Amino acid sequence: xxxxxxxxxxxxxxxxxxxxxxxxxxxxxxxxxxxxxxxxxxxxxxxxxxxxxxxxxxxxxxxxxxxxxxxxxxxxxxxxxxxxxxxxxxxxxxxxxxxxxxxxxxxxxxxxxxxxxxxxxxxxxxxxxxxxxxxxxxxxxxxxxxxxxxxxxxxxxxxxxxxxxxxxxxxxxxxxxxxxxxxxxxxxxxxxxxxxxxxxxxxxxxxxxxxxxxxxxxxxxxxxxxxxxxxxxxxxxxxxxxxxxxxxxxxxxxxxxxxxxxxxxxxxxxxxxxxxxxxxxxxxxxxxxxxxxxxxxxxxxxxxxxxxxxxxxxxxxxxxxxxxxxxxxxxxxxxxxxxxxxxxxxxxxxxxxxxxxxxxxxxxx
Length: 365
Description:
With 365 residues, this protein is α/β, with parallel strands linked by helices. 40% of the residues lie in helices and 18% in strands.
């Protein structure tokens, strides 16, 4: 995969329609967030998928449309029960489906739970080719299923992992504050690689004074981290803290409500449509960007990376990422995490029918 530039997309008068599948708490909040920022995003309409067999879903969508008619008269929200129509009329389709899961489930426990739903969605969309923006956890396995069951030759599937970047910056700033640094004078940045869950790799951590032009020191190792943190603050601890942050109910005390999630989904949509740098799960061929004698996961394979855009809805890996600068022990750990994710997928589909493409992908037929 070729790397791109950091340049924003040149300003163009492009207009977009957004499709939404799943109108629970996050999906409903997402509609509101898009409505509030549609001019900024260049969004001219929303298409919502629903099923008449699910009365609560229809009632919720009807209420949203009615509310919109009074507050945004000139902005259409269209209801459809036809996935093919949704795909045809949407530039981006956001998948936010979900069910009431056990509170003690972690993301990894959800592997396979939504595979059939996603398979049905992709088959229903047919040969239309909107960008599929996967928000339903677990993000990277679900992106893989969407790719394999797409009815097009070049599916554009991406996954919402921006929150890991947001959480990583927040945790680093908290650490700095606890060690006496004035965080208002510091700019904090990092890259996130891997799945949206345990085993993700925070790397290329950069902390610099706001008013200094120099790039600042980039941390790839715990020794590098020692410039700002005590030895207890390690990359391994940061990885676990980011993943724990996303799992613990206490995260809601930090404002991570449905409205917060929706606002960050909109920020990713803005990056996607306007060309800003983001953190996103995309299809990555590690052999193209990493020198290693280790066994790589099968392709297509999805993982979180820093991305930029040379054109709308077409993310490419940021040129600032050089995986070969990451110490081998972390690269090895990342590959093991990705291989473990493959095993969870294979364990789920092994004894089940109706997943022939997935089984073929992993050589299980």
